[in-house]
């Protein structure tokens, strides 16, 4: 049974988040030449910290991994569900959107002054910031001005 979550501080400002029931055994596995974890094989351990003991949730490891990614950069942290040495573009895009949402920023453009429903970049095109009624009124005025121009009527 896994009962603690730990964070490894690694070389080159890298981090690894893991869970175990035996921290000493796990640290020795990470330091071993037979280590199958590409991240801790490439970046050696400088320090470690037990973060959560006992584990409070099934999501703790992933949540802590994401917290560290937000703090230190996605490219500098691995752990939980994010174990690939190089994450896919789609994985990075999803994480970035999730982090924007967590910070109450628009997930499309990163601004804080609106939500994604109101973002002009939501569909890749600029959406009008005026109502349909305002557009109709503008069109009516354009048509009226055109008719006045054609018939030489001054308004």
UniProtKB/TrEMBL annotation:
<dbReference type="InterPro" id="IPR000305">
    <property type="entry name" value="GIY-YIG_endonuc"/>
</dbReference>
<keyword id="KW-1133">Transmembrane helix</keyword>
<dbReference type="Pfam" id="PF01541">
    <property type="entry name" value="GIY-YIG"/>
</dbReference>
<dbReference type="InterPro" id="IPR035901">
    <property type="entry name" value="GIY-YIG_endonuc_sf"/>
</dbReference>
<keyword id="KW-0812">Transmembrane</keyword>
<feature type="domain" description="GIY-YIG">
    <location>
        <begin position="1"/>
        <end position="74"/>
    </location>
</feature>
<protein>
    <recommendedName>
        <fullName>GIY-YIG domain-containing protein</fullName>
    </recommendedName>
</protein>
<keyword id="KW-0472">Membrane</keyword>
<feature type="transmembrane region" description="Helical">
    <location>
        <begin position="132"/>
        <end position="153"/>
    </location>
</feature>
